Amino acid sequence: MEMHPCFKDHKWNATPITRHAWINAISKQGWNCKFDASRRGPSTIDMAQAGQTGIVNIDVAWQSVSPVLHRISAPWNGDRLIVKVVKSGTLRIEQSGQTATFKPGDVVVLDPQHMFNEFVCEPVRMSALCVPKDALRERGLRHRFPLAFRPDPASADVGAVREFVLNLTSQAGKASDPLLARLAEQCLDLMDVLVSDRGTRASERASVATVLRAKQVIARHIGDRRLSPARIAAELNMSTSSLLRALKAKGLSPMRYAWSLRLEHAARLLGGAPHGAIQEVAYQCGFESTSHFSRAFKERYGMTPREYAASQHAAAVDALEGRTSRARS
Q1: Residue 43, Cβ neighbours under 10 Å: how many?
Q2: Is residue 197 part of a domain?
Q3: Which of 175, 204, 221 is the last residue of a domain?
Q4: Which residues pair with 171 in a beta bridge?
Q5: Per residue in 212-249, pLDDT tens?
Q6: What is the pLDDT of residue 5?
Q7: Which GO molecular-function terms appear in the entry (predicted)?
Q8: Based on the number of CB atoms within 10 Å of its own CB, is 248 exposed (0-12), middle (13-18) or buried (19 or more)?
Q9: How far apart (Å, rounded) are the C-alpha atoms in residues 249 and 160?
Q10: How many domains, the chain?
């Protein structure tokens, strides 16, 4: 028996659904959806995950959407930004009494924590990334947008990053999950181009990116006792002086940052380390000797590594006994 035509109008991750089911599916993602009752057209959404970034490829027509602001109904809406690229058709966004129109090639950054209405009055194709705000915070980037933000369409840099976004979204369902995650991380590193104000100089964006990449290198080599500013700079393909200048502008010293990470990592390891594993932890965290490790650790935490490990073990035993006691009662 032939399926009723209304079932063929809409597809969610390749599954045919009714208009009513489409509205419910959109609602579960944190959006209100309304159709133009007098018009009908096919709509499809294909969603994928690339590491911590969501990928959405959208073909829609004759409908409007707006974010659900209620924290219980859509608690995740405040935790992400939506970066959309219009591929065909025209998208209209109304917000705070203003109307903006986006045409093929345009990019728009939307913050679902702030109300807006998105209108599609013809068939429109878009690709979008759901970007965690935490990922932008970690990179020192802007992550709040009370109004829809349009990156400079005349900027060659914006155009290059737009193409990177489109390439990433086109790989959903094709590339392996590990590769998608890697591509998404690279895309996040480029987000400064799309979310920075037009007045932000390219040199300032480059400095932010350098600091982030330097932190990532340090974190990857936390146990390398040979780590130095020169080695960090070499991995970043830049001079040591340029690296130090970029970090100094942000009030950072590469080796002080490395020592801080090493001590934090050591504290985590000591929490679950067996008795007498102090030397092993010291070497895992890049310290030349246990005496050097002990001095640095005590200066940071006010107790020796052995005392810290003992206190963590005692706290774990107390917690276990407490849970056992409650279970028996």
Answers
A1: 24
A2: no
A3: 175
A4: none
A5: 888 889 988 989 999 999 999 999 888 999 899 888 88
A6: 45
A7: DNA-binding transcription factor activity; sequence-specific DNA binding
A8: exposed
A9: 27
A10: 2
